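for the writeup, i need someone to sanity check this before i put it in the appendix. the sequnce is what the collaborator sent (i think, or maybe the updated version? ugh). structure was predicted straight from it, no edits. if anything looks off just tell me and ill rerun, i have time this weekend
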Amino acid sequence: MNSDIRFIFLDLGGTFRVIDEDPAYLSAARSEIARLCGVQTSDPNQWFADVIEPRYDKYREWALKFMCEAPEEVLWTRWLAYDLDRERIRKYASELTYQYRQSKGRRTVVDGGADTVKELCARGYTMGIISDLVGCREVDEWLDRDGLRPYFKTVQQSSVTYVRKPGPAIYYYALDETGARPENCCYVGDNLNRDIVGAKAVDFGMTVAVQYNRNKPLKLTEENMPDAKIYTFPQLLDFFPAAGQVDTKRLISPDDGQ
């Protein structure tokens, strides 16, 4: 592990943001997907469960195998709604993807997340986002709505780059945009086999695993072993007192609590 850390990159889902699975919110999005697809059904939730979800599972298998995110139009015309009116699906592909994101729940920043990022920036760290997700609209809207865009020098999304973690390319895009050297970077994520493995593949100086649920131990291997882990997002402030420094006395052992 390198103690000269000046850049901190974050995963989004399960790391910087969590999901509120409000049933009414999910149902509204699924109804809108059926409407956009031109599907007449008395039970959009059941149609979504029977048709869209199994097809998305197949798409996800492909995406993980090839470490690739498909463009929105391809996602819907090839994978999710290939048997419906093609021109209609192409027309609404972006909105369909947006609604698919909403169909999984309302995403909110973790407790203390925004204040922690702002404080890290104040301490001199350069922040960035490297995240796997579908859709090109939702993240930009969220950053602007929450006033967080100024705090992230780079926002790399697999939906834009078409490259997924743990493929090294998406990390290199972030390094290029920030002018960072990998040895001066830390990556923070909740998925060991994507987030940590990918960051280690490009020789990031430090990796931190998120474990918000202490009752669900991390399955550590030699390949996905992080340098530290956190149980709350604000714990990052304990590790990083100022750019170029890591308080190694405050680090949590990766196998703590295993």
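The mean pLDDT is 93. DSSP finds ten helices and eight strands in the chain.
thx in advance!!
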